[in-house]
Amino acid sequence: MRVALPALLTVVLAAVVPPAAQAAPQSCPATVDESAFATTADLHRMNATIAGFGLRITGGPEHKAMINWLERQVHGLKTTSRKFEIQRWQPLTHNLETSAFLTAGADRVKIAGAIPYTQPALARTGKLTYLPATEPITKDNAQGRIVIRDFPPVDRGYTAESLLDQDLIAAGIAGAAGLIIAFDLPREQVRGYYDPHTGTHYRVPGVFVGGDEARDLKQRVGQRASISVLAYTEKATTRSLIATLPGQSDERIVFDTNTDGNTWVQDNGNAALIALARYFARLPLACRPRTIQFVFATGHLNRPTEGTEFLARQLDADYDKGTVAFAFAVEHLGTREFVAVPTDKGRELRPTGLSEFAAWFAGSPKLATAATTALANRGVDRVAVLPGIDVPNPARVPPQCSFGGLGTHLHSHLVPSTAMISGPWSLWAPSFGEDAIDFTRMRAQTLAAGDAVLALASTSRAEIAGPYLAYRQARAAGAAGCPHDLPPVQAPGGH
Known about the structure:
Layout: H1 5-16, H2 40-52, H3 61-73, E1 78-91, E2 100-104, E3 107-108, E4 113-114, E5 121-130, H4 139-142, E6 146-150, H5 161-174, E7 178-182, H6 187-190, E8 206-209, H7 211-219, E9 224-229, E10 231-245, E11 252-258, H8 269-282, E12 291-297, H9 307-319, E13 324-330, E14 336-343, E15 346-355, E16 358-362, H10 365-378, E17 383-386, H11 406-412, E18 417-422, H12 439-455, H13 461-465, H14 468-476
Parallel strand pairs: 5-6, 6-7, 7-8, 11-12, 11-13, 13-18, 16-17
Antiparallel strand pairs: 1-10, 2-3, 2-9, 4-8, 5-9, 10-12, 14-15, 16-18
Helix pairs in contact: 2-8, 2-12, 8-12, 9-11, 10-12
């Protein structure tokens, strides 16, 4: 049977071009069409798949498998990779809780897990000693001993990272046989806890313990104890995945999130980026005045090779070429609030029934207006639109450096930036599982992100930038900027 050429072309085009892209629209959407966007169930399934890969330590097999999966999810877009060489740390069982052991006297002590990147060791022994936070860890009080140290009494766990990092470095310099970080929370709630996430290889083996075990250990001070961290280190490679959706110009909007993690929360920005990529890919080219890139960055749990920092450096250079409009970091969406409440044994994390407070950082008035409007239209509560989280310093550009997470790298390199983030207890505690996320809220936040991009479609690059243009001029003239130091691969000290 013969088919007329026009009819044949119609069939072929329908097979390769999404229906929405086959004809120029009469008008482009001002906000995301919910009926054409990923459903709450879709986001739940994607998050379940991500969490299902297991402990996604940078460069590990689970992490590589996840990145490969991500690449398949954006197969219709042009994808490239940026590779990094790293010094990988890998627990032998691919599980923090089962890759370490602790004994005190003749008794085995249940642990919450190995502290990431602590020194692999087999049966390192020493006398137990307890050092409160008011007492520095030194050679005089820690050398050859297994030190018990309280987890800082913080409102949210992620704020303790710098103190944990300091204690681990100090214990290594002091020549401690081991370090025990003692939570005042039930072990079941902090099993597999992952922090600090500097990616620095520490020179002391370390474990987390829960509240009951901590109280028992403090009664055993002076007894001999043994600590083992069953892990290994090796040279490895990892990659950031970049998916590009062409627009009508070379100016880019760059979405960014991280791919390594250990909970349903830490790297759930990946599901949001997939949903956004699929939605924008179905819009007609006439409705994409700018190219959109989706960067699935590596190295957030191995921060000497923080993929977002290296992305920011590239965007900083590209901005002067006119090929960058703004960057948008997305992480930790839809989170539920858990707070630590006092009990007769210490504290316990309990749900409040509310959403975790979140921030939407915006470095210019146009970005802030887009964020505020999108949140209001989508009915997303408990989110503050902020210019930064640190104390302003008028002697530097920008005056505020920190966006609280990945966005910090982009903003501090003076790339016009906006960023969504929250910091719940469930960020590093995998025990909360899918209960950590309200997927209806996550969808509303993701829709709001898409709305903000559409709202800025006809806004010029200079209008979006606002004060960033003056910041860049001042930096070029010698003004002080933000620090961009990354953590060291190897901690100092040791024995």
